[in-house]
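Input.
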Amino acid sequence: MGSIAIVGVGHEAGAALGEATSERLRRASRVVVPSAQGTVARVLADEGIDAVTLSEIGLAPDMPVEQIIESLVSLAREGDVAFATSGYPFFKEGLLTGLLVRSRGTVNMYPTLSPLQVILMAFDIDLTADLDIIDVDSLRPDIEQRDSHLIVTGLRNRACARQTAERLSTVYPSDHAAVVAEALPGGGFALSMHTVADVADAFVGEDAAVYVAPTHVHPPGGFNELVRLIAVLRGPDGCPWDRAQSHMSLRRHMLEEAYEAVAAIESGDANDLADELGDVLLQVVLHAQIAADDDRFTIDDVIAGISEKIHRRHPHVFGDATAETPDDVHEHWDAIKRDEKSHPGLLGDVPRALPALVRAQKISRRVVGVGFEWETLEDVWEKFHEEIDELKATEPGSPEAADEIGDLLFTLVNIARKQGIDAEEALRGTCDKFSARWRVMEADAAKRGEKMASLGIDELERMWQEAKDGEP
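Output.
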């Protein structure tokens, strides 16, 4: 892996390169500039330094910074790379931090006057936090927990680095990120990513500084950072498991994560829910990246599609329609979905993979939307008893019996729907209730030194009733 350098070229008409900056550019296997016009391209041409533009490596100047990072890292696999940009050497917000994480090494910066200047100018500083600049000799052993950006200056040898690491480790987690900026021979600075603990082992010359972000500040990028991380996992230097996945191989994980999120909702644990929603979001972004790798669609297409759909299906919010009740909203929703779907038939997009009760509810609601409905709840009860009689008339365990049980369950789903009850939730509630009573019975039997399998039906019925009576 080659090195990566960010090189600043001044805006002034007479801008020229310093000796160290020029030497670094000439040493690079590839020099990249934003465009073929402007100060940067002119200065490099005057110096006889060949360069390629962003467009020549397949990037537009307004390309998201994550894609520029990945392109520079990819070029660095073939040798040293320099990115020359106008003004102070950082091109876009997040470029430097992204390169430090992805390059797994150091990033050099030219030209600079001091490590403090590098850090202040090049890093994205969260303005909601304060900035403290402390000389290493003034860094007390009892520094307080830091909620500010901290820059420790004046590091001049390994002893200073060890002292700094020891004192930082008393208040920061050992794996908290720290960036060391150290002077390069002849000019420029090298920045390298470390943890607070391994700052002690960092090479430190005569003029260096350490930057430590506030403990409460989250990693930069938010959602875009998540998208970038997944792209890295799927990339050439990423994770073999992630690179091997497909939409089909991940379908089970999508179901599992969705069910775990529902369980977290029911538990009422906010932290657990936040964690499980993150797992669901990971699945969404991973599927989008797989599609992007195949040039089918991107996460931006996913977001644009759902945003447009939300606007279209809420004309009572974003248009002139009126919906006073949730039932009115459902009516609008179903009508809009019928009009927008290109598949054949009303039920063509009800997934077969849904749990059977959920699928039955969806089918029933769809057909009710076009008028196929019992007039009263009593009519559904009449149909339910008819289905019971038909089931009784079949041979137990036969295919005909299975078919009639399906009819009976489908009718029962409609009884629930008619009463505004979610059949899936009702059955899940009963399963939970049954499981809780059975656990009480098992505990009772264990206290008496008995096994459930050895108890007769009369005793089990008695224990069941006691468990039921003991419920709050």
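Residues 423-447 form the longest helix (25 residues).
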